[in-house]
Design goal:
By secondary structure, the chain is mainly α. The chain folds into 2 domains: about 70 residues, no CATH class; about 325 residues, ABC transporter involved in vitamin B12 uptake, BtuC (Orthogonal Bundle). Helix content is about 70%, strand content about 5%. The protein has 17 helices and 4 strands. The strands form 2 sheets. Strands 1-2 form a two-stranded antiparallel ribbon. Strands 3-4 form a two-stranded antiparallel ribbon. α4 packs across α15, α5 runs antiparallel to α6 and α5 packs across α13. The longest helix is centred in the first third of the chain and has 61 residues. It is globular and about 65 Å long. The termini are far apart.
């Protein structure tokens, strides 16, 4: 037997063992799914008209779930066992010209789509049909895009894990609501004030956690977010408690009210009033705020403070040894991220017209953090794509009538509401995403400084830094 034949036999044996191991893992996943689903899905209690309970068997539902678990684990094993082609180190280290070209034009195309979105919805569905799309999809997604970009400064650029970001969102919302209802200030005056107040609370949070890192920092920020929510619940003369604050003034267009009243927007321009006017105006307001957040973040990344954030994210000890003031660096990250969270909160208050502490729970912080992680920490385009995927997907679940029919016919659940199971689908999407792309949609974190080789006059190679 030759050496080549021995190598082939060894490779076949290794491949056979891998297939056997993958088969065992897939069978184990199917058995685990069966054990979990047997008492919950296979046996279902129902009641008749007389109130008597009886059990119904749904074996097909359990078999389908076990088959999905088996196929999913098998596909995951095949993906992990795929051959990986090593790329040259230079190709990994430096971004290619084509990737930069694609990223630039993706951003330009996305901006054009965002600007034309309300007009396209009006042309496709009319005034009444486009109201839901502009409000539930356009405005809602852009709010979370702005929140994701604000948290991306703290988590993605500075590397500080913040689980209480919803606190600054709440501070901005309540700041606008109290200033507008108590002192009668307009939205455009309260907007920067709400951002400044949220930034102030961001610095208050930053001081106690200057020496904390990792899990300890996450626990303290989580506690801070819960403290703000509990204060809003119990300080009834200030916040109204669970009753919240109602009748919050709406935003105006250069002093023109968007409501159906004399001297309003429609009356001034001599057009017929429609509720779509207010939604389109709100859409472009939040779009402008989100673009300002993106512009400021990209500009700051090229400044010394942005480079200090990146250095802090990579290695805090090395950052301190280089003479960078880590205290000021952390405080600026917390303050700026909180500032944009406060702006988003004030817009949320003016859009809803009513706020309560129940709108600012930990689930909001978890959703915003998931958007940053899934999109790719430090990536602006990735965060925007993750917000579209998560928030848009949640809204689509409310309208999946075919899923209700499927669950009623196959699984025997007549009153199935897909929106109630969005947490399950959300967790499943995160698991799949972390397996396929552990660093998010856009996993490339481009530094703010690139080293470019250039030939000197003497013919030797020197490297120059370009900001």
């Amino acid at each position: 037997m030759t050496a080549t034949t021995q190598k082939i036999d060894a490779a076949d044996a290794a491949e056979g063992s891998n297939v056997g191991g993958m088969l065992k893992d897939a069978i184990a996943a199917a058995i685990l799914a069966f054990l979990l689903c047997f008492p919950i899905i296979m046996l279902h209690a129902e009641s008749d008209n007389d109130g008597n309970l009886f059990l119904t068997w749904r074996p097909w539902a359990v078999l389908i779930i076990c088959a999905l678990a088996f196929g999913g684990r098998w596909a995951l094993s095949l993906y992990q066992a795929r051959p990986v082609v090593d790329r040259p180190a230079a190709a990994v280290a430096a971004p290619s010209t084509s990737s930069a070209f694609i990223a630039r034009y993706i951003g330009a195309f996305g901006l054009a789509v965002l600007i034309a979105f309300p007009l396209a919805m009006l042309a496709a569905f009319g005034s009444s049909g486009s109201l839901k799309w502009i409000d539930s999809y356009g405005i809602q997604i852009l709010i979370y895009v702005m929140l994701g970009w604000g948290l991306n400064i703290v988590v993605g650029l500075a590397g500080l894990l913040d689980l209480g970001y919803v606190a600054f969102y709440a501070v901005g919302a309540y700041a606008y609501a109290l200033l507008a209802t108590t002192f009668g200030l307009s939205f455009w005056i309260c907007l920067p004030l709400a951002g400044i107040l949220a930034a102030f609370w961001g610095m208050i949070l930053g001081f106690p956690v200057l020496r904390l890192r990792g899990d300890y920092l996450a626990i303290v920020t989580l506690a801070f977010g819960e403290m703000i929510r509990l204060v809003l619940i119990n300080w009834i003369p200030f916040s109204g408690g669970y009753a919240g604050i109602a009748s919050i003034p709406k935003v105006s267009f250069f002093g023109l009210s968007m409501r159906d009243q004399p001297g309003g927007f429609a009356d001034f321009f001599h057009i017929e009033y429609s509720p779509i006017h207010s939604k389109i105006f709100l859409y472009y307001v939040i779009l402008a705020l989100a673009l300002i957040t993106n512009f400021v973040t990209l500009r700051l990344r090229r400044l010394p403070i942005g480079r200090a954030w990146e250095a802090l994210r990579e290695d805090e000890i090395a950052c301190r040894s280089l003479g960078i003031n880590t205290r000021n660096t952390k405080l600026t990250a917390f303050a700026l991220g909180a500032f944009f969270g406060g702006l988003a909160g004030s817009f949320f208050a003016v859009r809803q017209g009513f706020i309560s502490p129940e709108s600012f729970t930990f689930n909001e912080s978890a959703t915003i953090l998931a958007i940053v992680v899934l999109g790719g920490m430090g990536s602006q385009i990735g965060v925007a794509l993750a917000a579209v995927f998560l928030i848009g997907g949640f809204e689509l679940l409310r309208e999946l009538e075919w899923m209700r029919t499927l669950m009623a016919s196959v699984f025997g659940i007549p009153d199935f509401d897909p929106a109630q199971y969005r947490g399950l689908l959300f967790g499943l999407a995160m698991v799949v995403m972390m397996v396929l792309r552990p660093r998010g949609f856009v996993s490339t974190r481009l530094p703010s400084i690139f080293l470019k080789e250039k030939k000197a006059v003497s013919g030797s190679l020197v490297k120059e830094g370009h900001g």
